[in-house]
Design a protein that fits this description.
The structure is a homodimer. Chain A is α/β, with parallel strands linked by helices. The first copy, chain A, is built from ten helices and six strands. In chain A, helix 5 links the parallel strand 2 and strand 3. Chains A, B: Keywords: Cobalamin biosynthesis, Isomerase.
Chain lengths: ~240, ~240
C-alpha cells in the first residue's frame, strides 16, 4: 500500500504498531490507562481522579498527592460530573489550561480568566491572574462553574477569597505549580472548600501544573460521559460499589 | 484607595504581598527561580535548563531527569538560543504546548503540528500526531526549526524517523509523557540525535508533559534574550565560566 504521494505505508509500521487508528484516538490513551490501573486502585470515583493524575504526569507517586475537599471524595467527583452534564462553564486561569480541556464529551463553554481585570491589576499591583479571577467573579462567572487553576498560585488565592465572600463554584480543580505560594494557595483552597462545602480537587505540595489541572478536569468530563451513557449513577446516595 | 467600583484595595494585600505588579509579571517568577537556584546548581547553560525543569514541575527531582544529546550540554542550549535569535519556527506537537510558549522575547513563528496529515493518518492507521509530524516534515517545516514534543510519544518517534531520514532541526525538545512508548520514544530521540549530531533536550523515564516541554523551550528563549542583551556569548568556543 502506498500513500497519495507514493510513500510505502510499511514505513509507518512503528506508529501503527501502537494500535491507534484515526477516528479512534482514544486507543493509545486507553492502553496507557490500562497500565495506570495496574499502579493505582480502581474501585472508587476518587480512584479515577488519582489514576488520571498519574496518567497526566507519568508518575505513580502522584496518586498520593491528590486531595478532595468540601465533601467526601466520590461526591466531589459526582458534583464535578453533574456540573459538566449541566453544561456549566469551565473557567481556567490561563490559556494553556484552556487548551488542555478536551473538546469532546461535553457542551460546556470553556473560557479563561487571564485577559480580564487589567484595570484592577493596574490599580492594585496584584498579579494579572489574581485580578482576572476577581473580575470574572464580580461578573458572576464562577458561580456554579467548574473553576480550574493550573498555573497561578495567586489565582487560587483569589478564588479562595471569592468562595469566602459567597461564590459557590460547582467544583474547584486547583493544582497551581511553583515555589512561591503554590503549596500555600492550595492549602487555602482546601480550607475554604471544607468550611463552605465547595467540592474541590487539589494536590498537596508544590507539584502540579497546567497538564495536571486539565487532565483532572477532563476526567470529570469522562465521568460525566459515563453517567450520560447510563454506566454510572451520579446521585449522591448511589452506592460507591456500582460506580465503575 | 478604592477601585473604580468602590472596593477597598486593602482587600487585595494578600496578592500584592507577593511583590508582583502589573507590567512586571516576571517578578513572582523571578522569586520562584531564586528558590529554584537554592536547589539546582547555577553554573552552566545546562543548569539553566535543569532549573527550568524544576521550576515548571515544582519538583526538585526533575533536575536529574534532563538529558542533552547530539552535542555537549552547553552547546545544545546555545544551538537552541541561536535558532531563537535566527527567528526559526517553533513547531509543537499539540495545541497545549503551543499555548505554553511565551509570546515575549522572540520573533519566532510558533505553530503546531496537530491538524496536519489527516489523509496520511487515515490511510495508514498511524496516530494523528505522528502523521502530522511526517506531513510537516514533508513540507520542510522541521528543517532548522525548534522542534518541540510535549505530549505524544508517537510524534517523538515520527520526529526521530525524520531526523534519521535527513531532517536537521536546530534543536529538539522532547518530553512526551505517559505509559505507552513515552520513555522509549525519548530514548529513540536521544539515539538519532547523538548519531546525527542534532542538539536535543529530553527527559528520561515517563515523566514530562506539555508544561515541561513549553518551559524548557521558553528557557531557550530566555537564554536567547540574554545573548541579545549582550549578557551571554553564544559562539561555540565561548568559555562556559562566562555563561551567566
Amino acid at each position: 500500500m502506498t500513500t497519495d504521494d507514493g510513500r510505502d505505508t510499511s514505513d509507518f509500521e512503528a506508529y501503527a504498531d501502537l494500535g491507534a487508528t484515526t477516528g479512534d484516538a482514544m486507543e493509545i490513551a486507553e492502553t496507557s490507562m490500562d497500565r495506570v490501573r495496574e499502579l493505582v486502585p480502581d474501585e472508587t470515583l476518587g480512584d479515577r481522579i488519582r489514576q488520571k493524575a498519574v496518567h497526566a504526569t507519568g508518575d505513580p507517586e502522584f496518586q498520593y498527592l491528590v486531595r478532595f475537599s468540601g465533601a467526601d471524595e466520590s461526591e466531589v467527583v459526582r458534583a464535578g460530573a453533574r456540573a459538566v452534564l449541566d453544561e456549566q462553564p469551565v473557567v481556567t486561569d490561563i490559556t494553556m489550561v484552556k487548551s488542555g480541556i478536551t473538546g469532546r464529551g461535553h457542551s460546556c463553554p470553556v473560557r479563561k480568566a487571564i485577559g480580564n481585570g487589567a484595570a484592577l491589576a493596574a490599580e492594585t499591583g496584584m498579579t494579572r491572574t489574581a485580578a482576572s479571577v476577581l473580575e470574572l467573579d464580580r461578573q458572576g462567572v464562577y458561580e456554579g462553574s467548574v473553576a480550574v487553576v493550573g498555573n497561578a498560585p495567586t489565582a487560587a488565592l483569589a478564588l479562595a477569597d471569592c468562595i469566602e465572600s459567597g461564590t459557590r463554584p460547582a467544583v474547584v480543580v486547583a493544582t497551581p505549580v511553583g515555589f512561591v505560594k503554590a503549596a500555600e494557595s492550595r492549602e487555602r483552597v482546601r480550607e475554604v472548600a471544607d468550611e463552605h462545602g465547595v467540592p474541590a480537587i487539589t494536590t498537596v505540595g508544590r507539584r502540579g501544573g497546567s497538564g495536571v489541572a486539565a487532565g483532572l478536569t477532563n476526567e470529570l468530563v469522562h465521568v460525566a460521559s459515563d453517567a450520560r451513557d447510563g454506566d454510572l449513577p451520579l446521585d449522591t446516595d448511589a452506592p460507591v460499589a456500582s460506580e465503575r
